[in-house]
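Working notes for the structural subgroup meeting. M.R. asked for a predicted model of this chain before we commit to crystallization trials. I am recording the input and output together here so anyone reviewing the notebook later can reproduce the run.

Input as submitted:
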Amino acid sequence: MVTPTGLGSAARRDRRRSPSNLRYRHEIDEAARHLLGDSVYPIDVGRLQGEWGVRYFVNVAQAGVGAAAAVTAAGMSRSWGKGRYPLAFIRRLPGFPSARLVAQMASRAHEGNGLAAIFANGQFFAGGWNVAPRSSLTDGRLDLQVIDCNKSYAIRLVPKIIKGVHLTDSAVRRYATEAFQLVTDPVWPIEADGDPVGNTPVSVSVVPGALDLKI
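Returned structure, recorded in token form:
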């Protein structure tokens, strides 16, 4: 039997005496039987390549101030809960350099200034931010978003990103693309699914249906 984490010894004894524990074990057994079945959901995976090597991600990768914030958040106490990333973003934003950037896609390019570039395969990150409301794990494309605004406006943009209503904002440019190369001046840090991986430049692509997700 799997014992839930965070329960004291007295609470665990109470669960063993309680009839509700039978239901808990039944649900675990059902879940285990389900995992033995054949039902899977093939999903895309993102691929990053730079001078530092190759890294794959399932959910969201990013470069710029968001990546810097993710690195800072990873080193903060988990007692902050969902507040870790917003607090880390506020800490990193004032001193973070905006960059001149080029995102070269197969048939077009985005060139301009920016504070962040988001590469989304999934829809949510950072404990519930709806960063890519139009993204899909199964469409064979990544959701590239370039954020270009001054730092005071970036603070006001955060609530829109959390709610997933930021794509119509003039500070956000969005592209659905299979692959692109991102170059920035100065170089930016990159993170993938919450882990730092290196710096720009980076080549980003999607590997369609690369992973079978158990459903």
